[in-house]
Amino acid sequence: MRRATLLVTVGATVLALLALVVGAALAKTPSGVKATPVTATQITRATLGNFEAENKSIEVESGRRSADLAIVKVVIEPGGSTGWHHHPGVVLVPVKSGTVTEYDAQCHKSVYKAGKGFVESNSEVHLVRNEGDVKAVLYATFLVPSATPPEGLTISDPQPKECHKH
């Protein structure tokens, strides 16, 4: 069961990130983006159904729900931000190029450079910003419930009261 929960969490996080960039037209700038753009391009989406998989101590399981997998390319210009948001599933986010800073609801920051990545899950409110001087390119893999519409992969949130800096 623990294995399944991890797998669902990872998948949902990936799909959530996809939602961040997908939007209704699948190339819409997420809400909360100020002066510089964030572009998202859905690469693919497929229904996996109910599943359970494991290999070398990595486990993923959809539980009792059908899950979809979606992959989205996200490009964040220097100074660009995703805006505060959360996801309905699990999103796995490798950074292809550039550097991004992720802020959680308590304003704690984590910096990810090309070749590193992060996982978003548990409906945690966060913001991803490009504080560098070159484009940041991310590939978000979302694992979400199959009923999640493309525009529902990312859910906008107000800026947390605990974080007034961003």
Structural class: mainly beta
Q: How many domains make up the 3D coordinates?
A: 1
Low-confidence stretches: 1-35
Question: Could you give the distance between the termini?
Answer: 38 Å
- Helix-strand topology string: HEEEEEEEEEEEE
User: So what's the CATH class?
Assistant: Mainly Beta
Query: Roughly how much helix do the residues carry, as a percent range?
Result: 10-25%
Question: Please, what is the average pLDDT?
Answer: 81
* Major β-sheet profile: 5 strands, antiparallel
CATH superfamily: Jelly Rolls
In spatial order, strands of the major sheet run: 1-4-11-6-9
Give the DSSP E fraction (strand runs of 2 or more residues): 35-45%
* Overall strand count: 12
Radius of gyration: 15 Å
Please identify, by name, the CATH architecture. Sandwich
CATH topology: Jelly Rolls
